[in-house]
Amino acid sequence: MISSQHRPGLVATLVLSLVFLNGCTSTPSKSAAPKVQAGSSGAAKGNSSDIDLNCVMRHIQSPPEAFHYTFKVESDNPWQEDADITPQNVTGTFMNNSLTKPQSFQGPPPQVVSNLMGIGRMASIFSTIHRTAAVVNQGGEQKNGYSAVRFSIDTSLADPTEQGLFKNILGPGGFEKGMVWATAGGCPVQIVMDEELHARDGSVLGKSHYEEAMVKQ
Q1: How far is Cα 48 from Cα 36, in angstroms, rounded to an integer?
Q2: 83 neighbors 13 (Cβ within 8 angstroms)
Q3: Which segments of 135-187 are extended strands (E)?
């Protein structure tokens, strides 16, 4: 497993993360997410759809409907969030490796949104695959009560130029792979992603597994 401090390009990611933090007072997460886009591969690559991590935060801060939200990271720096969200109230918990047990919170969405910002930890993943052939539009389908577009993520599908970029960021043999379901507005209502970072000699530096879900109630 590896924490974000080992990831190449971290300085650029942290700069982008300041955009995500604008307007937020405090958060248990030290990462934050910029708005990003992901394009489909091949001839359809130019017809991209948004995968907007900020949209998740807008849904939590100003919920348009009731939904259940979860986010977790399995790594050497684990994190987990779970919340029932309505336009009037949020009841939830968060957990990390510095806590002995989950910490509970409750209140109006704008007042407790800072407890649910863990998805910002995925900012560097989506900035890496932004508009590359690693993101493939698989078509529309229903997911978690939402109309969504399913995207497959696989850095091994990149063209030679992109492979050079991924090699510099992820290391030789490193990869990002998974699935994302996003609404027409870009909100990811389901994410299942794996990342593996390698050293220059190809040895594994660490692994991270990410999951996120918004389930309409």
Answers
A1: 11
A2: no
A3: 135-143, 146-154, 175-182
- From residue 12, alpha-carbon distances to 6, 33, 37, 182 in Å are 13, 12, 17, 25
Burial annotation 158-185 (CB, 10 A radius, 16+ → b, else e): beeebbeebbebbbeebbbbbebbbbee
pLDDT for 85 equals: 98
* Helix, strand, coil percentages, rounded to 5, for the chain: 30, 40, 35
Report yes or no: 54 and 188 within 8 Å, Cβ to Cβ. Answer: no
Segments in 5-63 forming alpha helices (H)? 10-21, 53-61
Enter the DSSP assignment of 100: S
* 170, 177 contact by CB (below 8 A): no
> What pLDDT, in 10s, does the model give residues 33-68?
333 344 333 323 433 456 899 999 999 999 999 999
The answer to whether the CB of 24 falls within 8 A of the CB of 31 is no
The 10s digit of each residue's pLDDT in 139-168 is 999 999 999 999 999 999 999 999 999 999
Would you place residue 32 in the very low, low, confident or very high pLDDT band (cuts 50, 70, 90)? very low
pTM for the whole thing? Answer: 0.78
Average predicted confidence (pLDDT) for the chain: 82
Domain positions in the chain: 4-216
